[in-house]
């Protein structure tokens, strides 16, 4: 049996479309799961080699179910990311007219991308969240809801027709997906990488978040995502999910992570992996004083001072 990749299903999700852009899927069995949680649990249980799930969209930010799964439970690691531009189709059973639609369904992350369209065209329709956009389409086929927002490509799979296509409140809306596996050595640096971590503060004090961010800033590291998630320990208790530009084998990133490890209650390393929106090696120069060579020369100088050889 080939190694399998679990993904947020059922068949016909944007997640599946994004996953199929990875060349290695040609030699993997792709297995749909009903939720992000169940796909990730399949990896934790060793049933699947990796899971592919949505993690962020450019309209509303982090997909909280995915972030919360990565923050808690048995540690997992991100190995790849894929960006997909998204527009929605309104899928209905054949013959349904706009005036027939009383209920609409989609994944919660779809709502902010179709809200204005709904207000303009179906202001009285009741929104029902589904486990995924394709699941909403499946539920329309079953007669549970009148319409689903999903990819146009899902229509044929569920015997539906697209009453409207190209629905998107925000131009160029993109969703980011990640391939997640059990912890292992991260892929080698490509010269355009990203590192993901979760940080828990040691204590609450003025400037606590600034102190955490300062570990990146002082080493010239750009941040690409900062999302706070409640720890569950009461109002005001948050951990921080951070994506930072660079690879853990870059000296500045390794030093920043060491700094964070010293000042945080806990740091969860979620991986270093190639950036999807930029070609390998194209990340551009690092700010002055933050290259590997400069870190190595500085460490060497301190060693010489310690030795009395400066
Ligand atoms: O992959 C899907 O179809 C999903 O349901 C997740 C999702 C939700 C909103 C935008 C892109 C992907």
Secondary structure elements and their pairing?
Blueprint: E1 4-8, H1 14-19, E2 29-33, H2 36-44, E3 50-57, E4 61-62, H3 64-71, E5 77-85, E6 88-92, E7 103-106, H4 111-121, E8 126-129, H5 133-141, E9 147-150, H6 154-157, E10 161-167, E11 174-181, E12 193-201, H7 208-217, E13 223-230, E14 238-245, H8 251-263, E15 264-274, H9 292-306
Parallel strand pairs: 1-2, 1-3, 7-8, 7-9
Antiparallel strand pairs: 3-4, 3-11, 5-11, 6-9, 6-10, 12-14, 12-15, 13-14
Helix pairs in contact: 7-8
The chain binds 3-phenylpyruvic acid.
Describe the protein:
This protein has 310 residues and is an alpha/beta fold. Helices cover 27% and strands 31% of the residues. Strands 1, 2, 3, 4, 5 and 11 form a six-stranded mixed β-sheet that branches. Helix 7 packs antiparallel against helix 8. 37% of the residues are buried. The model has no long low-confidence stretch (mean pLDDT 95). The site of 3-phenylpyruvic acid has 14 residues, from helix 1, strand 3 and helix 5. One of its GO terms (biological process) is L-phenylalanine biosynthetic process.
């Amino acid at each position: 049996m080939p190694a399998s990749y679990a993904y947020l299903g059922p068949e016909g999700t944007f997640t599946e479309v994004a996953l199929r852009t990875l060349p290695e899927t040609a030699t993997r069995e792709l297995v749909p799961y009903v939720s992000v949680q169940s796909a990730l649990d399949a990896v934790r249980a060793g049933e699947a080699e990796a899971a592919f799930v949505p993690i962020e969209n450019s309209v509303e930010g982090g997909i909280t179910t995915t972030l919360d799964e990565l923050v808690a439970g048995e540690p997992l690691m991100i190995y790849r990311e894929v960006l997909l531009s998204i527009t929605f189709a309104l899928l209905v059973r054949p013959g349904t007219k706009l005036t027939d639609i009383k209920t609409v369904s989609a994944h919660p992350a779809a709502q902010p991308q179709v809200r204005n369209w709904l207000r303009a065209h179906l202001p009285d329709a009741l929104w029902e969240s589904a486990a995924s956009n394709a699941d909403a389409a499946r539920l329309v086929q079953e007669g549970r809801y009148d319409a689903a927002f999903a990819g146009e490509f899902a229509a044929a799979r569920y015997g539906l027709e697209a009453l409207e296509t190209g629905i998107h409140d925000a131009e160029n809306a993109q969703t980011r997906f990640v391939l997640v596996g059990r912890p292992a050595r991260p892929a080698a640096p490509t010269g355009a990488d990203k590192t993901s971590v979760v940080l828990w503060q040691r204590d609450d004090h003025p400037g606590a978040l600034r102190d955490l961010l300062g570990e990146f800033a002082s080493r010239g590291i750009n941040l690409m995502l900062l999302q706070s998630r409640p720890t569950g320990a009461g109002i005001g208790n948050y951990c921080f999910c951070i994506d930072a530009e660079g690879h853990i084998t870059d000296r500045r990133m390794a030093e920043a992570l060491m700094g964070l490890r010293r000042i945080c209650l806990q740091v969860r390393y979620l991986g270093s992996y190639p950036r999807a929106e930029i070609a390998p090696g194209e990340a551009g120069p690092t700010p002055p004083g933050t290259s590997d060579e400069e870190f190595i020369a500085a460490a060497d100088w301190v060693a010489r001072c310690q030795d009395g050889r400066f």
